[in-house]
Structures are given as C-alpha cells and as structure tokens.
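call fold(seq) -> tokens
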Amino acid sequence: MYYNVWMTLLLRHVRLAAEKNGAPADILLSGGKISAIGDLPPRADFIFEGEGALRVPTWPARIAVILGAALAALEYLLAAAAHARALVTGETLPGDVASPGTHGL
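ret:
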C-alpha cells in the first residue's frame, strides 16, 4: 500500500505503552506525525483497528505452546539417548560425520 505525507491514518483502540492500566485510545497520524490522541471520530484516509481487532482465546494458544515444548523436549531426550547408546556400543548413527583422520573408514 502506498502512503504519502499528506495522508491521515487513524489507529483505533490502541493501548499506549506509557499507560499500563489506561483505557485504549485513538491515535491520529497526519503527515507522518502524531496529531491527536484520545477518543476521535472515524475520519481519516486509512483506519486501522488496534486492540480488539483480533481476539484469540488464551487457553488453546497456551496449550499449543506447552504441547509444542513438551514434544520438542521429548525429541531432544530421544536424540540424546540414541547418541549415548551409540557412544557405548561404538555404532555410528545415520548422518554422523566421520572423525578427522579416519578418512571415512
């Protein structure tokens, strides 16, 4: 999307970083600079929704992160066990590189 300096952008329902417990506010950008902050009428060349434009339920996202981390930990434990077993038995694992000086023997 092409923007020029004379366009106005309205960011609606944006939570400001300085106000941690404050209510969301609207920010009007004009000429690349902030020209107004507050409860503003929806008049601008482009209007973007801030907070509330997309709501994702928390519990499925958290479960997905926890399950992904658990599966990654399991995969690393299985790989560590395979390498430990190969170290004890003297086997080489598929994809292992020969040590320097052995010339692949």
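The helical segments are 58-89.
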